[in-house]
Design brief:
Oligomer: single chain
Radius of gyration: 24 Å
Order of helices and strands: EEHEEHHHHHHHEEHHHHHHHHEEH
Strand content: 5-15%
Number of strands: 8
Helix content: 55-70%
Shape: globular
Structural class: alpha+beta
């Protein structure tokens, strides 16, 4: 893999999220994208602000560790040429892959706007927190089961402490990552964000209102650390070098800390409360319509990069209510995608006019469907539905149907939420939570997935392809 990325000298950073290895590149032109996508275990690639290799849950962690070890041991010599590969005979699947590459390039160009770049940077603050959110979310769910069943009463308090400690201090981690992402000193960002969750803020009164620990949550921590970064940068350019080590940290913590206490926590708290109220009102009042719109538009939002704006909202809802009610609805977009791909597969099976080319595309779909069921949709999106055109739209229709299904139950008072962000599809089952018990919550989510699969399949089979050809 490393030679196909241009060699060690071309790698500037390495990180990973739930499913992707994210590599910073000095020269993206040195990457052999075709050869990378052909590697066993690689589910797809995404060229964005970092080059992303889709590997799937679990696998990505092991590959990242091995990749970092390889980077450490490899000589940092410049690579001037990329490995050459013999291109396979052009088939329909390969033509679709080329279309997917073009669409990825176009999306990257469109996303290179200040607003979308800011959204990606905010997303970079929260993405590293996802593994802890998932682990703690599963433990919280397990602890809830034990409490409801009355089992292991001596263990549940310890399990509750382990599951809840991260969420109690998540503001500190958000502050640390914010300063790191925006060019400040990470520990100063964490120090200022810690003000948000410090119990002693209950003794602070301003404008006749007493603060509460945690007020403003992750939004307050994000704002506090961002302010600290700008204060720190301002000090660096004005303080003499001999005094920098003393003055800059002190001024940064003092100015940003007081601003957090006497302004940011109040403002962020009001915004966070509004987000929770709006989410509850949206689903209980217009649940079916809201689910229809959110489930149907999520795939286009992903294509435009606007879905990253939802990450702080998810985190705020998890912090407030213990789960986000938006993620299960948005996950229905992946269900519609799976149904659409399955319909394309079935249609091609009955088309004997282009047996060789259809067999190639069916192989692509067959290899990508398991990942799609687990919520990793990029291989199906960029390798099948989006290049074909119509199946992408019918996949959105499937997502809309699944979202509307969950929305109807929300109007009936059944909340379906997720205790962490990142997973979707079947991988979301261990993280489900709600207000009517785990059994009903799981049943509603499963029903939404089934609805998304079925609607995506039927819509694509009937309208997603012209006749039985692959012409979009």
């Amino acid at each position: 893999m490393l030679p196909l990325l241009g060699g060690p000298a071309n790698i500037t950073s390495v990180a990973h999220c739930m499913t992707r290895l994210r590599v910073g590149l000095d020269d993206p032109a040195l990457v052999d994208d075709t050869a990378l996508r052909a590697l066993p275990g690689v589910l797809g690639t995404v060229a964005d602000d970092t080059y992303q290799i889709v590997l799937g849950p679990g696998v990505v962690t092991r590959v990242t560790e091995a990749f970092e070890t390889l980077l450490t041991e490899a000589p940092r010599t410049a690579t001037t040429t990329t490995p050459t590969t013999t291109a396979p005979p052009t088939t329909t699947a390969e033509e679709l892959a080329d279309r997917g590459d073009s669409l990825r390039t176009e999306r990257r160009r469109r996303n290179a706007t200040p607003a979308k770049t800011a959204l990606r940077r905010i997303a970079n603050v929260f993405v590293p927190l996802i593994p802890a959110l998932i682990g703690c979310g599963i433990l919280a769910g397990l602890n809830g089961l034990l409490l409801n069943a009355g089992w292991l009463p001596g263990v549940t308090p310890a399990l509750a402490a382990v599951a809840s400690a991260f969420m109690a201090l998540i503001a500190v981690f958000v502050g640390y990552n914010t300063a790191k992402e925006f060019g400040g000193t990470p520990i100063l960002g964490g120090a200022v964000a810690a003000v948000v969750v410090y119990p002693g803020v209950a003794n602070v009164t301003a404008f006749g209102v007493t603060l509460a620990p945690g007020q403003g949550g992750v939004l307050g921590a994000l704002a506090a650390a961002l302010l600290a970064t700008y204060v720190e940068k301002g000090c660096r350019g004005r303080v003499p070098a001999a005094l920098d080590v003393l003055v800059t940290p002190t001024v940064t913590v003092l100015v940003a800390g007081l601003a957090t206490l006497y302004g940011l926590m109040y403002a962020a708290g009001a915004v966070a409360a509004a987000i929770g109220t709006a989410a509850d009102w949206l689903l209980t009042t217009t649940g079916a319509l809201a689910g229809l719109v959110l489930g149907g538009l999520f795939l286009p939002l992903v294509m435009l990069g606007l879905h990253q704006a939802l990450i702080p909202i998810h985190a705020t809802l998890i912090e407030q209510q213990g789960y986000t009610v938006l993620l299960p609805i948005l996950a229905m977009a992946g269900a519609g995608q799976v149904g659409a791909a399955a319909a394309v597969y079935v249609r091609l099976r009955h088309d004997h006019s282009q047996r060789t080319t259809n067999r190639s595309l069916r192989t692509t779909i067959r290899s990508a469907l398991p990942a799609g069921l687990l919520g990793v949709g990029e291989p199906l999106i960029y390798g099948v539905s989006l290049p074909l055109g119509r199946p992408f739209l019918t996949a959105c229709a499937g997502g809309a149907a699944g979202g509307a299904f969950i929305g109807v139950f929300a109007m009936l008072g059944v909340k379906v939420g997720a205790t962490a962000i990142g997973p979707s599809g079947w991988a979301l089952f261990p993280l489900l939570a709600g207000n009517r018990g785990l059994g009903l919550t799981t049943a509603v989510y499963a029903g939404g997935l089934a609805t998304g699969y079925a609607a995506g399949f039927v819509a694509t089979y009937a309208f997603g392809l012209r006749h039985t050809t692959l012409d979009p």
